[in-house]
């Protein structure tokens, strides 16, 4: 058995037996070989469900929102991006630090489960890493109570904006045609919103059609309105976990929009990585007197 | 039966496209779905025959967003008019797998119920020729045989033409008058032969649904829901890719003094779905919503129409972001 | 430019902050300064009130150009509102361009209560540019079923002719 999985199970058993936590949230094997899915265990006997493999991409931090009113402590396993997501929720005052027990796992990068679904299990090794993982700069958890294994070297030191720049190089009409094609595919299932740790509003305007902001009429214009609004709302708060893109059934490149905002924020207001430390205010949550001036 | 070589697929589609609007499963912009053959040619999209599309063909009969009637204010009076039909030609959809044919049969139960026949749905059904394909290459997510779908013969209340996959050839057998006309249009491309129905390959996933609805009727308060609801993130992916989920919402789209009444898909996983006037929500959380979805599929629909609302197409097994697995659920419910 | 554009009268939406730009527009009026009548001025308490969704919705419903105007940085009635606006719209402007809208159609400008002539100048210039590039077709969300209305209009015309 994978030594990391073994240690995960041991820690889960220990924490549940001692009563330090009431539940442990980790991953279990899903239906197919390319699926690893979130699981919550509440007794030491269930601990052998826990696994660790190259498809543990689901970000567990957001599940803490479901248990924010619980009395006891909940333990979760955090990869680099889950830890940033945890900080995101903390900075947004959604959860309390002392009610979570974080078990950090340095992450070697997760495989692209959508690519994997197209091939047989025997071709597992040829499946590339998920796109966000390929340029991951924070594979090691930035916050944890306990760490499993040793830290890994980040795959990149600088963010990769090559895909954003490729699109920027097009003419407005070409870009418009590109996004039209993408957003025509959107079925507005809101999986991107529900998987996103930065989308933590209790009442989302898109869940409230009475508010009048969006109709249930699914057409390219409304889909685009949704996409831009969501990207804008998570601008400066996106922790680059790529969950939005991974859960999208229509394969829309959602991270492209998020990365565009990250790139512009870096260029205009100075380098900023969300979810690293919770004391620095978010780029759109504060201002400087000497910000760039283009509107005179 | 008319037997046509698979190499002549393009000729076949072109021949049909002369008198029909042909709809085919295709991959465009990294998404597989049913789309008009004209659009496939225009976008140079790839026709997908060896796997189930991500989006089901249900939009052909129940579009995600569909106008019901138009209205406008005139001299302080409201006028209402029917919308012109957007189907000019007869449509042919080729090929539809048996699981999706069964999905259309489920929609028929709801929208062509003798107590109320839905006019718009009926028009779309009447103007569409469904060519059912007996698929002989089940994926690891397929379990239609377990859900009561006949893998050799499609549900003949829906299918107009039965197509058999003979390896290098397709055999076409008309099952209805509409289907006969369609087969006439492609007769010249092949030859008349008598062929034996090919053997079907076993599916990997097998579930037992014997007595399941009765069993589930006593499990409303069972603890099984607690473990199944955990993973769910409350998105609408399962409902929107499902070939049978038919829940809809009715909305207005108003611009100035004119407007359109719209019927749009809805998902019981959304928090707004069950919201009552005054703010009460009888299904306030994930548990109640997951329970409703599974019970609707496996119990309530069976009680009303004596068939399951799940056809075993396996889309949700593959596409649910967090892998809430209906097969695992059925197995666990059986074991209780 | 084609003949279509010569007859084209754009619709331009101006979000004007109550304390500066709206006063500036008022001053332009009091001073009898002429500016094109293509603008619709929408008064907001502060430019910081202008949610990016307002801009998107304007384009959806048929506006050809949007201007967000407020006090100069440092002059905000609420001390800091326009500093947030500045950050927000520096980003939003780039995102709209990234999504493929024409960059000329969206602008943010600072216009104070004493800058009546600047208001006139900004509006005149924006109207000229948008008139030249023609009506906006991008991101529009019209009623999808125009055929029914076209039929009604044709019948009405026929009725009038009789």
Task: Tell me about this structure.
The complex is a heterotrimer of chains A (296), B (336) and C (162). Chain A is 32% helix and 8% strand. With 296 residues, chain A is α/β, with parallel strands linked by helices. Chain A folds into two domains: 3-147, no CATH class; 162-285, no CATH class. A five-stranded mixed sheet of chain A has the order 2-1-3-4-5. The model of chain A has no long low-confidence stretch (mean pLDDT 95). Chain B has 336 residues and is of the alpha+beta class. Chain B has one domain (2-335). In chain B, β2 and β3 form a beta hairpin. Chain C has 162 residues and is of the alpha/beta class. Chain C is built from six helices and four strands. Chain C has a four-stranded parallel sheet with strand order 2-1-3-4, sandwiched between helices. In chain C, β1, α2 (21-30) and β2 form a beta-alpha-beta unit. The longest helix of chain C is centred in the middle third of the chain and has 18 residues, at 81-98. The radius of gyration of chain C is 18 Å and the shape is globular. Classes of the chains: A alpha/beta (296), B alpha+beta (336), C alpha/beta (162).
Question: What is the topological layout?
Answer:
The complex is a heterotrimer of chains A (about 300), B (about 325) and C (about 160).
Chain A: H1 3-18, E1 23-29, E2 36-41, E3 74-78, H2 80-91, E4 100-104, H3 113-116, H4 131-134, E5 146-147, H5 162-168, H6 172-184, H7 191-195, H8 220-233, H9 243-247, H10 254-269
Parallel strand pairs in A: 1-3, 3-4, 4-5
Antiparallel strand pairs in A: 1-2
Helix pairs in contact in A: 6-8, 8-10
Chain B: E1 2-5, H1 9-19, E2 21-28, E3 31-36, H2 37-43, E4 46-47, E5 65-74, E6 77-82, E7 91-97, H3 98-111, E8 112-113, E9 116-117, H4 119-126, E10 128-134, E11 161-165, E12 169-174, H5 177-186, E13 191-192, H6 212-216, H7 224-229, H8 237-241, E14 248-255, E15 258-265, H9 286-305, H10 315-319, H11 326-335
Parallel strand pairs in B: 2-7, 7-10, 10-11
Antiparallel strand pairs in B: 1-12, 1-13, 2-3, 2-4, 5-6, 5-15, 8-9, 11-12, 14-15
Chain C: H1 3-6, E1 12-17, H2 21-30, E2 39-44, H3 52-60, E3 65-70, H4 81-98, E4 106-110, H5 116-133, H6 146-161
Parallel strand pairs in C: 1-2, 1-3, 3-4
């Amino acid at each position: 058995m994978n030594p990391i999985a073994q240690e995960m199970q041991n820690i889960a058993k220990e924490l549940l037996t001692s009563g330090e936590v009431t539940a442990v949230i980790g991953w279990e094997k899903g239906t197919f070989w390319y699926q690893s899915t979130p699981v919550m265990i509440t007794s030491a006997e269930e601990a052998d469900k826990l696994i660790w493999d190259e498809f543990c991409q689901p970000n567990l931090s957001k599940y803490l929102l479901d248990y924010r009113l619980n009395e006891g402590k909940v333990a979760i396993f955090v990869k680099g991006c889950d830890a940033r997501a945890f900080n995101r929720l903390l900075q947004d005052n959604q959860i309390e630090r002392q009610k979570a027990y974080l078990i950090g796992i340095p992450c070697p990068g997760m495989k692209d489960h959508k690519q994997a679904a197209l091939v047989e299990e025997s071709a597992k090794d040829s499946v590339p890493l998920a796109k966000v993982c390929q340029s991951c700069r924070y594979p090691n958890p930035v916050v944890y109570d306990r760490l499993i294994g040793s830290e890994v070297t980040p795959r990149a030191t600088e963010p990769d904006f090559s895909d954003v720049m490729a699109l920027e190089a097009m003419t407005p009409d070409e870009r418009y045609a590109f996004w039209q094609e993408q957003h025509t595919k959107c079925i507005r299932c809101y999986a991107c919103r529900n998987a996103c740790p930065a989308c933590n509003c209790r009442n989302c305007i898109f869940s409230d059609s009475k508010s009048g902001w969006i109709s249930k009429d699914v057409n390219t214009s409304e889909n685009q309105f949704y996409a831009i609004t969501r990207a804008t709302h998570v601008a400066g708060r996106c922790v680059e976990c790529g969950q939005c893109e991974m859960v999208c059934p229509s394969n829309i490149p959602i991270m492209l929009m998020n990365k565009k905002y990250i790139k512009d924020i870096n260029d205009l207001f100075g380098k900023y990585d969300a979810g690293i430390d919770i004391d620095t205010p978010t780029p759109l949550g504060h201002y400087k007197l000497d910000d760039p001036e283009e509107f005179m | 039966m008319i037997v046509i070589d698979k190499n002549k697929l393009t000729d076949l589609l072109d021949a049909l496209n002369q008198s029909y609007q042909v709809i085919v499963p295709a991959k465009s912009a990294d998404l597989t779905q049913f789309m008009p053959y004209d659009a496939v040619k225009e976008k140079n999209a790839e026709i997908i025959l060896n796997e189930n599309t991500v989006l089901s063909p249900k939009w052909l009969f129940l579009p995600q967003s569909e106008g019901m009637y138009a209205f406008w204010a005139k001299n302080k009076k409201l006028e209402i008019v029917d919308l012109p039909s957007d189907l000019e030609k007869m449509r042919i959809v080729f090929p539809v797998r048996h699981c999706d044919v069964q999905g259309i049969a489920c929609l028929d139960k709801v929208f062509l119920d003798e107590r109320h026949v839905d006019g718009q749905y009926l028009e779309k059904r009447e103007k569409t020729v469904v060519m059912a394909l007996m698929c002989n290459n089940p994926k690891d997510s397929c379990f239609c045989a377990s859900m009561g779908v006949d893998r050799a013969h499609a549900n003949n209340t829906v299918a107009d033409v039965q197509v058999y996959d003979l390896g290098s050839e397709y055999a076409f057998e008309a099952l209805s008058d509409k289907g006969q006309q369609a087969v006439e249009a492609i007769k010249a491309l092949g030859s008349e032969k008598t062929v034996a129905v090919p053997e079907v390959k076993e599916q990997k996933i097998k579930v037992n649904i014997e007595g399941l609805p009765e069993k589930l009727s006593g499990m409303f308060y069972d603890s099984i829901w607690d473990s199944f609801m955990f993973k769910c993130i409350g998105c609408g992916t399962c409902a929107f890719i499902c070939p049978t989920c038919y829940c809809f919402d009715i909305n207005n789209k108003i611009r100035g003094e004119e407007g359109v009444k719209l019927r749009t898909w809805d998902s019981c996983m959304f928090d707004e779905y069950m919201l009552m006037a005054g703010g009460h929500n009888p299904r306030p959380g994930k548990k109640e919503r997951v329970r409703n979805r599974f019970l609707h599929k496996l119990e309530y629909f069976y009680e009303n129409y004596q068939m399951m609302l799940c056809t075993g197409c396996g889309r949700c097994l593959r596409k649910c972001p967090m892998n809430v697995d209906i097969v695992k659920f059925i197995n666990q419910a059986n074991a209780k | 430019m084609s003949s279509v554009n010569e007859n084209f009268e754009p619709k331009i939406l101006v979000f004007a902050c109550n304390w500066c730009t709206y006063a500036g527009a008022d001053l332009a009026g009091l001073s009898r300064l002429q500016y094109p009548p293509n603008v619709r001025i929408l008064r907001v308490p502060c430019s910081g009130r202008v949610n990016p969704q307002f801009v998107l919705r304007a384009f959806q419903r048929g506006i050809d150009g949007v201007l967000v105007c407020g006090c100069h940085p440092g002059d905000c009635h609420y001390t800091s509102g326009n500093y947030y606006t500045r950050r927000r719209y520096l980003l939003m402007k780039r995102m709209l361009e990234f999504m493929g809208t024409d960059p000329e159609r969206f602008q943010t400008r600072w216009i104070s209560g004493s800058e009546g002539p600047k208001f006139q100048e900004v509006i005149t210039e924006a109207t000229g540019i948008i008139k030249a590039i023609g009506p906006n077709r991008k991101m529009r969300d019209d009623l999808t079923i125009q055929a029914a209305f076209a039929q009604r209009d044709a019948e009405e015309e026929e009725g009038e002719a009789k």
